[in-house]
Design a protein that fits this description.
Strand order of the largest sheet: 5-4-3-2-6
Helix content: 10-25%
Shape: globular
Structural class: alpha+beta
Radius of gyration: 14 Å
Strand content: 25-35%
Order of helices and strands: HHEEEEEHEEH
Largest sheet: 5 strands, antiparallel
Distance between the termini: 41 Å
Number of domains: 1
Length: about 110
């Protein structure tokens, strides 16, 4: 019988995962579109899964624009709420890192 991860309770709140001061410091959606090498300002990952989401811009509520490194490299939007609702392969919650990184560095 497989694990039903929906029964697991999220222990991390949005304020722990992305504190208000950090949320307010992130560029708004569309504001870095003219930059050739924008900064990925936040990194989201599951310790037990090989995909990584890098946030470049944020709508201030839930939606990020950024780079997703998974099966392929792709720019697009993703929801913080979806990352928080899901689990990695062993049931671990999403984590984050705040070290700003130029996007081109991530693609090399």
């Amino acid at each position: 019988m497989g694990r039903n991860y929906k029964l697991l309770i999220n222990t991390m709140t949005i304020n722990q995962l992305l504190p208000k001061a950090v949320r307010e410091s992130l560029p708004k959606l569309g504001s870095t579109s003219e930059e050739k090498n924008p900064l990925a300002r936040v990194k989201f990952f599951y310790p037990d899964f090989d995909w990584t989401w890098y946030g470049i811009e944020f709508d201030g509520d839930d939606i990020f624009y950024g780079l997703v490194l998974g099966v392929e490299e792709e720019f697009g939007t993703f929801r913080l709420s979806e990352l928080m609702e899901n689990r990695g392969t062993l049931g671990l919650e999403v984590e984050r890192d705040f070290q700003p990184t130029p996007v081109r560095t991530l693609l090399d």
